[in-house]
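writing this on my phone so excuse typos. first protein, seq and then structure
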Amino acid sequence: MIYTSDSVEKEALFEVAKLMATAARTAPKAKGVDTILTLILDGDEKAAVADEMRRISESGANLATFGRDAGNVDASEYVVAIAVVDLPAGLTVCGTCGFENCAAATKTGVPCAFNISDLGTAACSACAVASHHWIDNRLMYTVGRAVKNLGLFGKEIRACYGIPISAKGKSPFYDRK
């Protein structure tokens, strides 16, 4: 049997996407409380994210980055999305978010600093997995915004990042205009 590079690379990309999602979920978290959710997107869902990014790009000044990044999503086989739900740490003396305690911050809608830092740790863990497997990737807030707008997680999330991944002769994530 002969396996072509196209089929082998797509299969490898999906395996790495699963490892990335797993790394994000098992990344260290403040107080050991899990607030991380993950998705892997391809096909129509990935296309819907790119379309939403284009819509955002056209909705106002200084949003061209969304359109540029939509092209990167189009050039990717998969997108790994990582989100955080809002679950304040419940501390009475923390102040990391700038408020006296979690109760004061919750009244204002300010996200828990621990939740947001957990999202960053999870996203970096996922990107590290991709890099360790020589898979081209790029962490994008623009993808996360589109995923959040589309409600793809099916529940309320606080913030989200997206990581398109690719295995081509040249990374589509660099030499961007």
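second protein below, same order as before
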Amino acid sequence: MKLLSAVRDFLINRQRAYRLVFNPDNQFTRVVLKDLARFCRASESTFDADPRLHAVKEGRREVFLRIAKHLDLDTKDFLKLYGVNDD
């Protein structure tokens, strides 16, 4: 149980760090997130006929989605993604 508690604390602290760095209430954060969404193709296809370019685009999108996941989910749902209960 001690390990589970440590994992839970680690995940909560990491989510808190993301939310502090990417605070959506900050006007500059909104500018950065909007730019990253465009650059990372957050809401469009990453397909490219060139497999290397496709991999680069998909990698960018994966990073953006990781940031978004840390920001958008409440703590309970975030912990569920990692199979940790918020008890």
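The mean pLDDT is 91. thats all i got for now
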